[in-house]
């Protein structure tokens, strides 16, 4: 089992004909993902990497039955690309693009809500979603782990890869990179709910980072709704106050948003929190070995 992305998912790539779109379309295809076409209005009717290119998301969905779109378009065009996917009511839209203005992210997130939340947005500025052995939508390396029964949700792309690799002997049902921007489509809580409901997931790794209160809200959700074991890591223990670290959303102000405050909130509800990514992997290994 997996969440949101399965072996039956049919993927289209918005911006497939660009440099990044081409490279990662090849990688997704090589991993076994069912990429069925691309979208570029100026190249509609042509083929690229052996796949048809369509003028719109709606046309691509009608012709191929696609139910996932991966967005590889420049930041200034991302808002329009995502709104087009929402208008077409594609069930899942994975926005890889980095540097999307927060105002634009806010606008297309609100647009999705206005349209009835028929399209789940993951990202922007994220590595995407991978269900090992089944499908891969985005830029997560397909060969660093195996299929298994751990669910992973992470703000950080590189830490997603590290935990997937360190726990490769147990494997993952699905790994979801939600991105670290201040406004994102899918949250920790969304993924926690899906993993809790997924019979193929036995335990959950949650990776957060300094800034905002997403991890504290996730802790409150875990206390009320999650019965599966959760292990967490919060990046940024050494971050100085007032300095943005890496992601646009990773900024600490006073005690709000610090790694320590997030760690305490999670531990208070029974989540085991590692001091390093490797310790976090060890904590999860202990849980899986005891099952």
From TrEMBL:
The active site is at 247 (tele-phosphohistidine intermediate). SUPFAM superfamilies: NAD(P)-binding Rossmann-fold domains, Succinyl-CoA synthetase domains. Substrate binds at residue 161. Its EC number is 6.2.1.5. Keywords: Ligase, Nucleotide-binding, Tricarboxylic acid cycle. GO terms for biological process: tricarboxylic acid cycle. Gene3D superfamilies: NAD(P)-binding Rossmann-like Domain, Succinyl-CoA synthetase domains. PROSITE patterns: SUCCINYL_COA_LIG_1, SUCCINYL_COA_LIG_2. It is an enzyme of class 6 (ligase). One of its GO terms (molecular function) is nucleotide binding. CoA binds at residues 17-20, 43, 96-98. Pathway: Carbohydrate metabolism; tricarboxylic acid cycle; succinate from succinyl-CoA (ligase route): step 1/1. GO terms for cellular component: cytosol; succinate-CoA ligase complex (ADP-forming). Signal peptide: none annotated. Residues 4-100 form the CoA-binding domain. It catalyses: succinate + ATP + CoA = succinyl-CoA + ADP + phosphate; GTP + succinate + CoA = succinyl-CoA + GDP + phosphate. InterPro entries: Cit_synth/succinyl-CoA_lig_AS, Citrt_syn/SCS-alpha_CS, CoA-bd, CoA_lig_alpha, NAD(P)-bd_dom_sf, SUCC_ACL_C, Succinyl-CoA_synth-like. Belongs to the succinate/malate CoA ligase alpha subunit family. Succinyl-CoA synthetase functions in the citric acid cycle (TCA), coupling the hydrolysis of succinyl-CoA to the synthesis of either ATP or GTP and thus represents the only step of substrate-level phosphorylation in the TCA. The alpha subunit of the enzyme binds the substrates coenzyme A and phosphate, while succinate binding and nucleotide specificity is provided by the beta subunit. PANTHER family: SUCCINATE--COA LIGASE [ADP_GDP-FORMING] SUBUNIT ALPHA, MITOCHONDRIAL (PTHR11117:SF2), SUCCINYL-COA LIGASE SUBUNIT ALPHA (PTHR11117). Heterotetramer of two alpha and two beta subunits. This is Succinate--CoA ligase [ADP-forming] subunit alpha. It comes from Nonomuraea thailandensis.
């Amino acid at each position: 089992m997996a969440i949101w992305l399965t072996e039956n998912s049919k993927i289209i790539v918005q911006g497939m004909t660009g440099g990044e779109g081409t490279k990662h379309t090849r990688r997704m295809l090589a991993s076994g993902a069912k990429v069925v076409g691309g979208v570029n209005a100026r190249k509609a009717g042509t083929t690229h990497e052996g796949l048809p290119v369509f003028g719109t998301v709606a046309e691509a969905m009608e012709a191929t039955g696609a139910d996932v779109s991966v967005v590889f378009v420049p930041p200034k065009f991302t808002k329009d690309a995502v709104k087009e996917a929402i208008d077409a009511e594609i069930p899942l839209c994975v926005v890889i693009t980095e540097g999307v203005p927060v105002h634009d992210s806010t606008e297309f997130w609100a647009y999705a809500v206005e349209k009835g939340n028929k399209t789940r947005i993951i990202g922007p500025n994220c590595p995407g979603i991978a269900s090992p052995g089944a499908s891969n939508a985005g830029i997560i390396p397909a060969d660093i782990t195996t299929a298994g029964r751990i669910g992973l949700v992470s703000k950080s792309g590189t830490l997603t890869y590290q935990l997937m690799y360190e726990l490769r002997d147990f494997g993952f049902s699905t790994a979801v990179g939600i991105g670290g921007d201040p406004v994102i489509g899918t949250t920790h809580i969304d993924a926690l709910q899906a993993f809790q409901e997924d019979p193929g997931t036995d335990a959950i790794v949650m990776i957060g980072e300094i800034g905002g209160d997403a991890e504290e809200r996730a802790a409150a959700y875990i206390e009320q709704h999650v019965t599966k074991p959760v292990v967490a890591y919060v990046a940024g223990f050494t971050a100085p106050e007032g300095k943005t670290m890496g992601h646009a959303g990773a900024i600490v102000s006073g005690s709000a948003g610090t790694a320590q405050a997030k760690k305490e909130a999670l531990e208070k509800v029974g989540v085991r929190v590692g001091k390093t990514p490797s310790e976090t992997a060890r904590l999860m290994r202990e849980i899986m070995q005891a099952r």
